[in-house]
Specification:
Layout: E1 2-6, E2 15-18, E3 24-27, H1 44-54, E4 59-60, E5 62-64, H2 76-79, E6 95-96, E7 99-102, H3 103-107, H4 115-130, E8 134-137, H5 144-149, E9 161-162, E10 178-184, E11 204-211, E12 214-220, H6 226-238, E13 247-251, H7 274-281, E14 284-292, H8 308-320, E15 324-327, E16 340-344, E17 351-354, H9 362-375
Parallel strand pairs: 3-5, 4-6, 5-7, 7-8, 8-9, 12-13, 13-14, 14-15
Antiparallel strand pairs: 1-2, 1-16, 2-3, 10-11, 11-12, 16-17
Length: 376
């Protein structure tokens, strides 16, 4: 059995895939500081520590940072064991066996980053220089100049680069019951660019999860805007890989922003562009589940996402497919949001949303005891 858990962290992304073989893959990490009694966001660091402890580990097999906007890495420098500097290697930090980033996370100028963004970037750059513990989603030669400037033969790092249109190494249906296909980014950013468009350069994945004799298909879309989704549909159809567009579960992009559907918001509903509409209406399967990693959808028009007009379109899709539209900060209730688990039970019945629940501190206690035993 495999499952994906989405965490209520406001307008930010974090989801955790547990594969059939027990591998745990974390896609983005957003653990913002608590803002007091009215803050209903989950304590992500505590949740993840408890979940790891329950499975007897203090590491993730993979941590993927889709791009280096703060709502995709907030708190990472305090939570993870980072190899590039001893100050980030204290007791209790969580290890990343492998780190996944798009090429832009390596190439963009450091002055474009927040302080914590520079720390995450420094870790990715260190691992790439060392030649281990990282995968970079990139065109094969996009990193050549950067590597040469670092005194590294690019051919020595080719095995760490994964190009769009391929699967991430290390996971397949036979061993893990999971396959992770890369849709985007197609291109890369040069170091000298004056403007960084991280949303367009973010990592977009298509997951296939074993479900008995069938498969469940999942989209993790990061903050991809509508034109990137259009390109993905166009390129994938042209390549004869339409099965890589099908989905049972989709994390809708950019916290339910209309900009991931079309250039215009619309008055009551956002009408997507033709190719984006095909992605949702044609390639979704019966019982489709749409998850918006966002704040509560407002009743009226707002400048920032989530946009009610986009939510109306996603509700329309879910209704047509007899499925569900879920918002992380509304599940199971707006008053008390909790992590939402979507299970694939291996029975050929598809994906099932499990009632929201949080882990208990018991797992953290067990992990502390195990660390004490190892130290002794």
């Amino acid at each position: 059995m495999s499952d994906i858990t989405f965490f209520p962290v406001g307008n930010a992304d974090t989801c955790l895939l547990t594969a059939d073989d027990g591998s745990q893959l974390l896609f983005d990490f957003a653990s913002p500081k608590n803002q007091g009694d009215g803050d209903k966001r989950v304590d992500l660091a505590e949740e993840l520590r408890n979940r790891l402890a329950e499975s007897g580990r203090d590491y993730f097999d993979v941590v993927s940072f889709s791009h280096l906007d703060t709502d995709h890495f907030a708190g990472a420098s305090e939570f993870f064991y980072l190899e590039h500097a001893k100050k980030y290697q204290g007791e209790g930090r969580i290890q990343m066996k492998e780190m996944w980033v798009p090429a832009a996370a390596i190439l963009e100028s450091r002055w474009e980053q927040s302080e914590e963004g520079r720390i995450v970037q420094a870790e990715a750059r260190y691992r790439l220089k060392e030649g281990k513990g990282i995968r970079v989603i990139s065109e094969p030669k996009a990193l050549d100049k950067w590597l040469k400037d670092a005194g590294i033969d690019p051919d020595k790092r080719r095995h760490l680069i994964v190009t769009a249109g391929n699967c991430m190494p290390g996971f397949n249906m036979d061993s893990a019951g999971a396959e992770i296909f890369v849709h985007s980014p197609f291109s890369y950013q040069n170091e000298g660019n004056n403007e960084v468009d991280r949303n367009s350069e973010s990592s977009v994945f298509h997951l296939t999860l074993k479900d008995g004799t069938k498969n469940v298909k999942v989209w993790l879309t990061a903050d991809a805007p509508y034109d990137v989704l259009e390109d993905i549909v166009k390129v994938t159809e042209k390549a004869g890989n339409a099965d890589r567009l099908e989905w049972d579960l989709i994390k809708v992009p950019h916290h339910c922003s209309y900009k991931s559907l079309a250039p215009d918001k619309g008055e009551d509903i956002t009408e997507p562009t033709e190719k984006v509409a095909r992605l949702y209406a044609h390639y979704s399967r019966e019982g489709a589940i749409l998850v918006s990693p966002s704040n509560v959808v407002p009743e009226g028009d707002e400048t920032q996402p989530p946009h009610v007009q986009a939510a109306e379109y996603y509700r329309k899709v879910s209704k047509a497919k007899k499925g569900q539209f879920k918002v992380t900060m509304e599940h199971p209730t707006k008053e008390a949001p909790k992590p939402m688990k979507v299970e694939v039970r291996g029975l050929g019945l598809g994906a099932t949303v499990v009632a929201g629940s949080s882990t208990t501190p018991e797992g953290s206690r067990r992990m502390t005891e195990r660390r004490s035993e190892r130290a002794g």
